[in-house]
UniProtKB/TrEMBL annotation:
<keyword id="KW-0966">Cell projection</keyword>
<keyword id="KW-0969">Cilium</keyword>
<keyword id="KW-0282">Flagellum</keyword>
<keyword id="KW-0963">Cytoplasm</keyword>
<comment type="similarity">
    <text>Belongs to the RIB43A family.</text>
</comment>
<dbReference type="Pfam" id="PF05914">
    <property type="entry name" value="RIB43A"/>
</dbReference>
<comment type="subunit">
    <text>Microtubule inner protein component of sperm flagellar doublet microtubules.</text>
</comment>
<keyword id="KW-0175">Coiled coil</keyword>
<protein>
    <recommendedName>
        <fullName>RIB43A-like with coiled-coils protein 1</fullName>
    </recommendedName>
</protein>
<dbReference type="InterPro" id="IPR008805">
    <property type="entry name" value="RIB43A"/>
</dbReference>
<feature type="coiled-coil region">
    <location>
        <begin position="52"/>
        <end position="118"/>
    </location>
</feature>
<keyword id="KW-0206">Cytoskeleton</keyword>
Length: 363
């Protein structure tokens, strides 16, 4: 079981949320630092730079694309307004048709579905049949039950009254149908008139919207033409300025080349600042006439010295040859003398030996 180093921190943990402004500021600083690092570590942009002409072309293309999108949005907005007006008119027509249908239904209910003409059983009044009079009535009795045997099948005591009521009901129904037909014709005429007026209004509105769309299109074409002219003029001016700048740069470069140390062959450029007796190989343009004259003078002096040395060597060689010849002659003379001495020594030795031999023989 381990022990915590900071028990108070574990015991009293505070759930404090970070400040949104501080978090946003930290995030903004991080983003700026990332952008700066991306610009700094991008070797291509740092060394070669950015293609300004390509960026300008991209900006022009973006502006043209935005103008095209704005024109499309304007056209779509005009069409949307037209469609909204048509939809509103259709909604009004549908609402009017629904209102007329509801009015017809209400009129039919008021005329044909009254309480007095209803023959269905009323669930809200179940005792209605008990309160009605029986089928057979006379002057003395007011009520006869089912077992009174007073009403038989097929017997109709009020046939004339029922026929008269049926005729009145039929006449009333026929009059209602005639009124409904007349009202339907009137409503149909009104609906046709309203439909014609609606179609006329729709056509007029469509023509007005078409004129507005045509005027918007013409204005858009005029604006695009002006924008294209302005863009063409701007491009031409930019090309002229670029050509002028290029010409000025070329003239400046030619002037710099003419007056530069490369063509003037300034010998001071090749002088080494740290070692005056040395030259810079990549800037050296050759020796000056004075240097060449001094070198030629040194060469002539060296030639004379070499010739004198050669003559001295020849004289020394001649002397050595003469001495060698004298030495050879002396050696020959010494050899001759040595041979003569040897011969004389041999002769003396022979005579001495002969004398000794004679002496030995004499003994």
């Amino acid at each position: 079981m381990g022990y915590s180093i900071f028990p108070s921190l574990q015991m009293y943990k505070l759930g404090l949320s970070a400040d949104p402004k501080e978090v946003a500021a930290i995030e903004a600083r991080r983003n700026r630092e990332k952008d700066r690092q991306s610009r700094f570590f991008n070797v291509r942009n740092r060394v070669m730079g950015v293609d300004v002409e390509a960026l300008n072309n991209q900006v022009e293309e973006k502006k043209l694309r935005e103008a095209t999108e704005q024109s499309k949005d304007a056209a779509y907005g005009t069409k949307q307004v037209q469609y909204d007006l048509v939809a509103q008119m259709l909604e009004k027509e549908e609402a009017e048709r629904a209102r007329r249908l509801a009015k017809k239904i209400q009129d039919f209910r008021e005329q044909k579905q009254q309480l007095k003409n209803r023959r269905e059983f009323d669930p809200w009044d179940p005792d209605r049949l008990q309160r009605e009079f029986p089928v057979y009535l006379n002057d003395s009795d007011t009520f006869y039950g089912p077992a009174s045997m007073q009403c038989f099948f097929g017997e109709d005591l009020e046939r004339a009254t029922n026929l008269r009521m049926q005729q009145e009901q039929f006449r009333y129904s026929l009059e209602g149908q005639l009124q409904e037909q007349q009202q339907a014709k009137v409503d149909e005429k009104c609906a046709d008139m309203l439909s014609d007026q609606l179609h006329l209004a729709i056509n007029m509105q469509a023509a007005h919207l078409a004129r507005l769309e045509e005027s918007c299109r013409m204005a858009m074409m005029f604006a695009n033409a002006n924008a294209n002219k302005a863009q063409a003029a701007e491009v031409a001016e930019r090309q002229r300025l670029e050509h002028q700048r290029q010409q000025e740069a070329n003239l400046m470069e030619i002037q710099n080349q003419i007056t530069s140390d490369l063509l003037t062959e300034n010998p001071q450029v090749a002088q080494n600042s740290t070692a005056p007796h040395r030259v810079l190989p990549y800037c050296w343009k050759g020796m000056t006439p004075e240097q060449r004259a001094a070198i030629r003078k040194d060469q002539e002096t060296q030639c004379r010295e070499k010739e004198a040395k050669h003559q001295a060597e020849q004289a020394l060689d001649t002397e050595w040859e003469s001495q060698t010849i004298h030495l050879a002659q002396a050696a020959l003379e010494l050899e001759e003398q040595e041979r003569e001495l040897c011969a004389e020594f041999r002769r003396g030795l022979g005579s001495f030996n002969q004398q000794l031999a004679k002496e030995q023989k004499a003994q």
